[in-house]
Design goal:
Elements (H helix, E strand, L loop, with lengths): L5 H26 L1 H4 L4 H11 L7 H20 L8 H35 L15 H21 L9 H22 L2 H25 L9 H18 L8 H12 L3 H4 L6 H7 L7 H12 L10
Helix pairs in contact: 1-5, 1-6, 1-13, 4-5, 4-7, 5-6, 6-7, 6-10, 7-10, 8-9
């Protein structure tokens, strides 16, 4: 059996760090909501605090994480990770896989619940500007969270068994769905905001066009210098309005999320490479106590009562 649990343990230790980092970035972004969302600041603050309650404990997240723990064990079973082991010998690796799957499931659930907040934000009217401190900061903070999650997920998938003939099943089930879900949810969650941005842009362009039409004289003789300057001003403003972004993220945000998410399938592509004695030393065997000690340390770090935010 060639189950390497050290990357999983590292990934499990990184989940609380990732959640804390994401929560900090999310909090800084939430403070600027009133700048580009056309809603009273107190109403927005109350709304965002209710939407982000899952960061401090949620039964739905626990149920999802528990289901993901069972799924993790199931995918390793399908990949013949436990071949040649007795029931007694299976207990330790199953316990480790369940624990790491549960903690990583919490991180995965938090990512998609954050996406749900962005989706629901689309119910409010917004103000669109092209700089990165307004509505465009939405894509930036999402990209940071998704890239962090993708890197952790790469560590998680590196633990799949490399030598088994059906190891590709485990790798595919743990690697490919997150790639699709990360990229898909990143774009889909921002679609309502995209519609709001289009509404703002459309109304702004129509308003400026109406002002230009109202200033245009019926004949060239009525075009005074003052009117000409006003028309020129509104035309330049109209060009700026036409150049306003229509999505709350940049190309760099999308490419960063896609590339980092694609790393989740690297174990599938690198399956045939010789990893030599490194993986042999890190393999989970009853004769090698190092992974067990690392797991106990990781579990101690991830106890719920020692970390105020979920893990």
């Amino acid at each position: 059996m060639t189950l390497c649990i050290v990357p999983q343990i590292i990934a499990m230790c990184c989940v609380p760090i990732g959640i804390r980092s994401g929560s900090k970035a999310f909090g800084e972004w939430a403070e600027s909501l009133s700048y580009f969302v056309k809603k009273d600041k107190m109403v927005l603050d109350d709304w965002i605090s209710r939407q982000a309650r899952f960061l401090y404990g949620d039964r739905g997240v626990s149920r999802f994480a528990l289901a993901f723990a069972f799924l993790t064990v199931g995918t390793h079973w399908a990949g013949q990770t436990f071949n040649g082991m007795t029931i007694t010998q299976m207990l330790v690796p199953m316990a480790i896989l369940s624990s790491t799957g549960f903690v990583c499931g919490i991180g995965l659930a938090c990512i998609f619940l954050f996406s749900r907040i962005i989706w629901k934000l689309g119910r409010f009217a917004v103000r669109v500007e092209s700089h990165q401190f307004g509505i465009m900061s939405t894509g930036s903070v999402m990209a940071k969270c998704y890239v962090t999650a993708a890197v952790i997920w790469l560590l998680y998938t590196l633990s799949t068994p490399w030598a088994e003939k059906r190891a590709w099943i485990t790798m595919a089930l743990l690697g490919i769905p997150p790639l699709v879900l990360f990229v898909g949810s990143f774009a889909l969650s921002q679609f309502p905001l995209h519609k709001r941005m289009l509404d703002y842009k459309r109304l702004r362009v129509m308003e400026l066009q109406e002002r230009i039409r109202a200033l245009e004289p019926a004949s060239p003789d009525g075009l005074t210098e003052e009117i000409r300057k006003k028309i020129e001003f509104y035309r330049l403003t109209l060009l700026d309005a036409l150049a306003l972004p229509e999505w709350p993220f940049s190309f760099g945000n999308v490419s960063g999320v896609f590339v980092s998410s694609a790393t989740a399938v690297l174990p599938v592509l690198l399956k045939g490479l010789p990893w030599g004695k490194l993986l042999d030393y890190l393999n989970l065997t009853l004769a090698n106590p190092l992974p067990h000690l690392m797991f106990q340390g990781a579990f101690w770090m991830c106890r719920p009562h020692t970390v105020p935010v979920w893990c």
